[in-house]
Amino acid sequence: MPDTRLPKKAFYSELKLGKRSRGGQFKRSKDCLKANLKNCDISVDTWEQDACDREQWRKMIHNDAAKFEANHILQAKQKRAQRKSRQNQALGQTGIQCHECRKTFLAKIGLYSHIRTHN
Ligand SMILES: [Zn+2]
User: Fold this and answer.
1) 22 CA to middle of ligand 1, Å?
2) What span, in angstroms and rounded, lies between the C-alpha atoms of 27 and 21?
3) Which residue ranges make up each domain of the chain?
4) Would you state the pLDDT for residue 94?
């Protein structure tokens, strides 16, 4: 790809002037691309050489993206299980029970909304 093409200019360009704001910086598209490469276990330094062989590159991208997605789903499930176990522990300690069906709620408003369903 010639150096004058817009995608190449955007990916390799750097700002010479400018201030960085306090706190977290906004991510540029370049940063997002690098983060995605890292998430897919693709080397940020050598991806250009890997991409020269298009067929191999497409296989690699497809496989690594599938691995990343499976790992991401697994992590989300683990995170949900941890959150649910924490909620269940909290319910065991300070739950408020419905007098009619013995369902437990964390907050009074949840019980209040639930009691309306019994009417
Ligand atoms: Zn109830």
Assistant:
1) 50
2) 12
3) 26-93
4) 73
CA 101 to ligand 1 center in whole angstroms = 4
pLDDT tens digits for 56-114? 999 999 999 999 999 999 999 999 999 988 877 776 667 788 999 988 888 889 999 99
pLDDT on residue 91: 65
Coil, strand or helix at 105? strand
- Calculate how far, in angstroms, residue 117's C-alpha sits from the geometric centre of ligand 1: 8
How close is the Cα of 50 to the center of ligand 1, in Å?
60
**Residues near 2 by Cβ (< 8 Å), separated by ≥ 6?**
8
For residue 26 the two structure tokens come to: 């906004």
In this predicted model, which residue has the larger pLDDT, 19 or 99?
99
Cβ contacts of residue 95 below 8 Å, gap of 6+? 104, 105, 106
Please name which of 70, 76, 65, 58 lies closest in space to residue 41, comparing C-alpha atoms: 65
What is the number of helices (H) and of strands (E) in the chain? Answer: 5, 2
